[in-house]
């Protein structure tokens, strides 16, 4: 399938209305769930094995979305394909006091994966140009107020671009997914959090109050997609009204990223290879 259509890899003028949250790329759910998805999950596991063994590079997956767009389910259904040894999921919640005592990238830097590993960010540094912007949180944070001016978001976009370029230049790929869901679909999902007892635990009042800021959030997303998409750290806008499709599309993109990285199992140096026969005979004589 064509994934380019969902990718933003340069400065642009992203508009939400140009992306259809109900898109399914003409695919059928059954075929995707029974055939295409299992194939991708197996391929992800295989390539991750080589990435881990190679121990040179890593991947940072950034997941951003409005509430109830399906980040948690996506992690559960797609990234469980990966070996837990070599994968870390980090949720970024409201910053703690300690986190607020630092610059906004501090907590993100601490969550970066090691070489050979894959770090999955459930929310990320992008919250600092989203919720922080929509709710004007800088006014109540410890950042010196003389540094908060009209250009702060532009500067943050630049800082984030530089940070992600830095990661790329150090062998860490950054892949960013925005799960794009419609406001109607969100309403349905929040209602089911209320109606279904097994989903009640997921419901928070803030899910409803945040909905009032839907328009502001969409604008903030448009601005960040327009300004932080780069060739080396592109954003993908994932249609998310159909969960099965968003999960499949993410798996498809992730497989392509891994294939493009083409990780290889390290080969034993010739000298060590020549000793293998010796170690075989040692083991065979052992009882
Ligand atoms: P779900 O989709 O299941 O509700 P979630 O990711 O929304 O999962 P929550 O614990 O409900 O998890 O929410 C985390 C909250 O933390 C979000 O409202 C988010 O905006 C907020 N948050 C994350 N980073 C920051 C930040 N830097 N400043 C302020 N709030 C933040
Ligand atoms: Mg929430």
Automatic annotation (TrEMBL):
Q: Name one GO biological process term.
A: polyphosphate metabolic process
Query: What is the species of this protein?
Result: Aedoeadaptatus ivorii
| UniProt GO MF annotations | polyphosphate kinase activity
Database matches in NCBIfam families? PPK2_rel_1
Q: Which SUPFAM superfamilies match?
A: P-loop containing nucleoside triphosphate hydrolases
Q: Which key words are in the record?
A: Kinase, Transferase
**Name of the protein this chain belongs to:** Polyphosphate:nucleotide phosphotransferase, PPK2 family
Name of a matching Pfam family: PPK2
């Amino acid at each position: 399938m064509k994934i380019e259509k969902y990718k933003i890899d340069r400065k642009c003028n992203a508009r939400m209305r140009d992306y259809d949250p109900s898109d399914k790329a003409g695919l059928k759910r059954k075929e995707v769930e029974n055939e295409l998805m299992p194939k991708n999950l197996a391929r992800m596991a295989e390539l991750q094995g080589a990435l881990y063994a190679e121990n040179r590079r890593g991947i940072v997956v950034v997941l951003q979305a409005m509430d109830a767009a399906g980040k948690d389910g996506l992690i559960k259904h797609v990234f469980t394909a990966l070996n837990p040894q070599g994968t870390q999921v980090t949720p970024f919640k409201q910053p703690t006091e300690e986190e607020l005592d630092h610059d906004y990238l501090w907590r993100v830097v601490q969550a970066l994966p090691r070489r050979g590993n894959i770090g999955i960010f459930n929310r990320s540094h992008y919250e600092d140009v989203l919720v922080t912007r929509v709710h004007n949180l800088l006014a109540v944070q410890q950042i010196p107020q003389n540094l908060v001016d009209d250009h702060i978001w532009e500067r943050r976009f630049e800082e984030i671009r530089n940070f992600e370029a830095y990661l790329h230049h150090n062998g860490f790929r950054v892949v960013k997914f925005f799960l794009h869901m419609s406001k109607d679909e969100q309403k349905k999902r929040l209602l089911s959090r209320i109606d279904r007892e097994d989903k009640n635990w997921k419901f928070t009042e803030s899910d409803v109050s945040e909905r009032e800021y839907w328009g502001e959030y969409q604008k903030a997303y448009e601005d960040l997609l327009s300004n932080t998409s780069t060739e080396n750290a592109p954003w993908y806008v994932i249609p998310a009204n159909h969960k099965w499709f968003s999960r499949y599309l993410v798996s498809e993109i992730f497989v392509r990223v891994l294939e493009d990285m083409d990780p290889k199992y390290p080969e034993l140096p010739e000298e060590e290879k020549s000793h293998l026969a010796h170690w075989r005979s040692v083991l065979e004589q052992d009882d």
